[in-house]
Amino acid sequence: MTADLSAAYAECRRITRAQARNFAWGIRLLPSGKEAALSAVYAMARRIDDIGDGDLPEDDKRILLREARDAATNPAGHPDDAVCVALADAAKRLPIPLAAFGELVDGCEMDLAGRRYDTLDELIEYCRCVAGSIGRLSLGVFDPPLAGDTERPAGYADALGIALQLTNILRDVREDLGNGRVYLPSRDRELFGVQLRRLADGTLDPCDGRLAELVRFEAARAHGWYDRGRRLLPLLDRRSAACCAAMAGIYRELLTKIATDPSEVMRGRASLPARDKLRVAGRALLAGGRDG
How many beta carbons lie within 10 A of that of residue 112, not counting itself? Predict the structure, then answer.
């Protein structure tokens, strides 16, 4: 590996360790070549997300997202960009579907348009763009021996991404509302008689307990996506399965915590302590991703 390439991967690792508060626990379980590649994937995805979530004017964001789409899907064309240098090398070594980054950009553009969702199917379309895409990119890094069966594993990877994004939506429901974003489908909110609004103290209106019931309802749906996505694990090698199980396990424990006490997301952002993340990652490594 050349010095420039080593420096490029080092930058991707720095970004991942600094910003991937949950993903980093799984990524570090991979062998070095795949760990470097997934760090490059994450660093590019983080760049795209940061544009979408940043404070720039909408027109500026659209320009930057257009540039990021080109960089992510054609990293070899950007030899002066450290993340692109690492990503281009990773895509040479492994079957990473770089076109999936375009779907991530599509999802960010949905946010820019202020899109809201009437039905679960519409929300799943969004989740498939912003997170299913990451699942499929990660599958390319894991590079399992598929023997021609690519559709089924890609579907499982997609499902895990959707599960993680549904968890994020529940975790961030209060914060997103403050930023003018509502992801919970309007039909579900109407079914439970919930109006998302903040009270004077900044917490979400519990709607006489109806919001908690809606959160539990959506959490049960997300658990179903985890169940489907975990069918990917037996198709992966031991270290890749451990990485995948650790990332999914951390988010699933967070989802369980949210469903157990929905009031936590009404007050702020729910999270797991580092000791619990370490426990999940350690269990995944010992089990090779096969259980837990």
Answer: 15
